[in-house]
């Protein structure tokens, strides 16, 4: 600190500081009566800000597969890679632009809010905490950014699925792709080649559970035998196909027989050459509930600091960090979501419900928008003349008095192709909207979902 780069950098970040005051430390500064001119001094003297190398938060163009892969913490752990990063084999031409990604993120948040507000309204009228799903075709939540690879069928086929804590049904594209399959990197799963595959009949409890898992009433094939699922996501992506079961191989020593999943015959959307979706939400059909005997409804993941590094997804309790701090899940109006309370920054985080969602990139604060946004991000800077930046220490206080400092990689949103970075917090369109604690702010933490224990945990430095 204190060299010329840091000084000029902090001048150019005046705007950034003002925004932070609005968004994050309003009460602190007002209570202390600090004039605007003293902000920088105060900030550096009180260690509210620190300097980092820009390169430390920018992705490389090649996969750093050694970043985590060689020291995966557990035999039940799966490697996590970014859907659009160099660790996943994707055709360059099919990569969405940053603007497309942010727009998809925005529609995901809109769809989360439309569901929650809808259910909140129902609850008010019914003055009860019980929730039934809307009868109209329901939206699940999609557009996730991280994927894991595991085996399906006998012999097993390796498939990379995006994992999503906001949806329950797991599905993959299936031959013969009766209506439509999009391009995927691996061969499409062919049920006729798996000796352990079977269709699920319409008249089974599992077929009935699809209604709450997907929000859509299941159908039956015309001959009246096979159960048909339909699931659609906030960004217009969807999958429809046969409901089925087969053997799921997480790792060679973690094999789940008779795993229920969707065998997709009509698949549309922005799945980025992945084979489908792994549903980690709370519904009985989610993998968390289907494997509750083996893993006791506990899983954790670590999302890497950049899209060129790898993280992990682990099922079970044994590899949870000792330093994890927990916050209780609250009773969400929509039982499919994992809902927590965020207490910090009282004037900004004034909405009571917050949900944690691994599929939404940007944490949303009900801020007042500033000029010249890049898509949904309203506070962006050109760092082309700098190699370091001063960023604030941002901590979030959760229910249960759990205080977590965000990692440096969880504060600014970097566009891989340019030196423009934006503060990774986006305004909600309405102050009453739910705050979504997105996956940018979860980077490098081990995030532990102890569903049976009713709590969510965070441990710092879970991965690089
Ligand atoms: C599953 O059901 C579909 C539709 O009825 C049928 O075409 C397919 O052959 C069935 N697969 C198996 C393995 O029974
Ligand atoms: C979703 O699909 C509908 C109908 O195909 C279309 O009108 C709409 O523009 C699409 N929305 C997005 C966000 O792609």
From TrEMBL:
The chain crosses the membrane at residues 12-30. Pfam families: TAXi_C, TAXi_N. Residues 146-459 form the Peptidase A1 domain. The active site is at 164, 357. One of its GO terms (biological process) is proteolysis. One of its GO terms (molecular function) is aspartic-type endopeptidase activity. Keywords: Membrane, Transmembrane, Transmembrane helix. Signal peptide: none annotated. Belongs to the peptidase A1 family. This is Peptidase A1 domain-containing protein. The lineage of its organism: Eukaryota, Viridiplantae, Streptophyta, Embryophyta, Tracheophyta.
């Amino acid at each position: 600190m204190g060299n010329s780069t840091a000084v000029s950098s902090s001048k150019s970040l005046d705007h950034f500081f003002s925004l932070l005051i609005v968004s994050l430390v309003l009460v602190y500064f007002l209570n202390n009566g600090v004039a605007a001119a003293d902000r920088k001094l105060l900030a550096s003297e009180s260690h509210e800000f620190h300097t980092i190398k820009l390169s430390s938060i920018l992705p490389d163009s090649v996969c750093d597969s050694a970043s985590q892969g060689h020291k995966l913490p557990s035999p039940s752990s799966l490697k996590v890679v970014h859907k659009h990063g160099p660790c996943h084999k994707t055709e360059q031409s099919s990569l969405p632009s940053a603007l497309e990604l942010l727009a998809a993120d925005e529609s995901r948040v809109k769809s989360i809010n439309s569901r929650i507000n809808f259910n909140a309204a129902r609850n008010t009228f019914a003055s009860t905490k019980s929730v039934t799903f809307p009868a109209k075709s329901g939206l699940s939540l999609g557009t996730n950014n991280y994927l894991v690879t595991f085996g399906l069928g006998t012999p097993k086929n390796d498939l990379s699925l995006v994992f999503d804590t906001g949806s329950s049904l797991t599905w993959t594209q299936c031959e013969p792709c009766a209506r439509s399959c999009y391009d995927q990197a691996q061969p499409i799963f062919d049920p006729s080649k798996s000796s352990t595959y079977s269709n699920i009949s319409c008249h089974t409890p599992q077929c009935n559970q699809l209604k709450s898992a997907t929000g859509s009433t299941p159908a039956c094939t015309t001959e009246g035998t096979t159960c048909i699922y339909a699931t659609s996501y906030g960004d217009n992506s969807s999958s429809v196909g046969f409901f089925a079961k087969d053997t799921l191989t997480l790792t060679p020593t973690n094999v789940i027989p008779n795993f229920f999943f969707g065998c997709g015959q009509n698949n549309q959307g922005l799945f980025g050459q992945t084979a489908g979706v792994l549903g980690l939400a709370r519904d009985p059909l989610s993998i968390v509930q289907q494997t509750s005997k083996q893993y006791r409804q506990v899983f954790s993941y670590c999302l890497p600091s950049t899209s060129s590094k790898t993280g992990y997804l682990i099922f079970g309790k044994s590899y949870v960090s000792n330093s994890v701090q927990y916050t209780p899940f609250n009773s969400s109006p929509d039982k499919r979501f994992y809902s927590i309370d965020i207490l910090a920054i009282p004037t900004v985080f004034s909405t009571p419900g917050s949900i944690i969602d691994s599929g939404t990139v940007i944490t949303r604060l009900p801020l007042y928008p500033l000029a010249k946004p890049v898509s949904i991000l309203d506070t962006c800077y050109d760092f082309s003349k700098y190699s370091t930046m001063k960023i604030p220490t941002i901590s979030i206080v959760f229910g249960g008095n759990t205080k977590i400092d965000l990692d440096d990689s969880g504060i600014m949103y970097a566009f891989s192709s340019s030196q423009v970075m934006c503060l990774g917090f986006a305004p909600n369109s309405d102050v009453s909207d739910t705050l979504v604690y997105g996956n940018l702010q979860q980077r490098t933490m081990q995030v532990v979902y102890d569903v049976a224990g009713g709590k969510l945990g965070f441990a710092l430095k879970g991965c690089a």
